[in-house]
Write a structure and sequence with these properties.
CATH class: Mainly Beta
CATH topology: Immunoglobulin-like
Number of domains: 1
Protein name: Argininosuccinate lyase
Strand content: 35-45%
Keywords: Signal
Largest sheet: 3 strands, mixed
Number of helices: 2
């Protein structure tokens, strides 16, 4: 799989900060677009700000996927997501129930 190790490390770093009582969310992120995904943000739907780029220093090439673990210590399932691509385009989706979703696909 052509995902970068740095992206996996960034996602794993979130797991270190979660309290034991909170449930981690796991889902697959697919890039079915025609360009590299260079930034990926996940924030609780109740937040007005985007959290850090989970692909910092990495990217997700078209046709590939990566496992995402959200271990932010929250018990919510409802998140907003944003993807930014190498060509500068953005895609945003709001109020997703990631507990039920299991996967998310960016496409053209």
């Amino acid at each position: 799989m052509k995902t970068l190790v740095s992206a996996a490390l960034a996602l794993a770093a979130l797991a270190v900060h979660s309290p034991a009582q909170a449930e981690d969310l796991e889902f697959l992120l697919y890039n079915d677009s025609s360009d590299d995904l260079v930034e990926f943000n996940v924030s609780p739907a109740s937040s007005d700000d985007w959290e850090a780029n989970l692909l910092a220093g990495g990217y997700l090439a078209p046709g590939y996927e990566i496992g995402v673990d959200i271990a932010d210590g929250l018990t919510t399932c409802v998140y907003d997501i944003r993807g930014i691509f190498a060509d500068g385009s953005e895609a945003e989706d709001y109020s997703l129930n990631l507990c039920d979703l299991g996967e998310y696909t960016f496409s053209d």
